[in-house]
Specification:
Strand content: under 5%
Radius of gyration: 24 Å
Order of helices and strands: EEHHHH
Helix content: 55-70%
Structural class: mainly alpha
Number of strands: 2
Low-confidence stretches: 1-34
Shape: elongated
Length: 129
């Protein structure tokens, strides 16, 4: 297995085949060459107006991510409750027509990625088959 080595100069190198690289003590972070306190390190641009807008947009993305995670978890709990209720009453573990309906809804709205997302949601609610 090839291992990257950070030299004392801060550059990232790969040892030559068959020759071990220098030993490095302690944790080594890959050098970025950028000061993390500078806006371009966080946003990819040094232009202040663009950097500020990127930070603003990312804050909203983070809010959406939190909401999606909460909704995902709620959906999984509800789906598990449906399955447990159905099985406790003598029903089947799965209702394939319902799963096909969900897959189709996501496919129509989001295309092929929607189908993949729906499969993940279904698995979160019922577990792997």
């Amino acid at each position: 297995m090839m291992t990257d080595v950070v030299e004392s100069s801060g550059s990232l190198t790969r040892p030559e085949a068959g020759r071990p690289g220098p030993e490095v003590s302690g944790p080594v972070d890959a050098p970025t060459g950028a000061d993390d306190t500078k806006p371009e390190a966080r946003t990819g641009t040094a232009e202040p107006t663009a950097a500020a807008r990127i930070v603003e947009i990312r804050e909203r993305i983070d809010e959406i991510d939190r909401a999606l995670i909460e909704l995902w978890q709620e959906r999984a709990r509800l789906s598990q409750e449906v399955g447990a209720t159905r099985m406790a009453s003598g029903g089947t573990r799965l209702v394939l027509s319902r799963e096909r309906e969900i897959l189709e809804r996501f496919r129509v709205a989001l295309g092929a990625d929607g189908t993949q997302l729906a499969l993940l949601l279904l698995r979160a609610g019922r577990g792997p088959l």
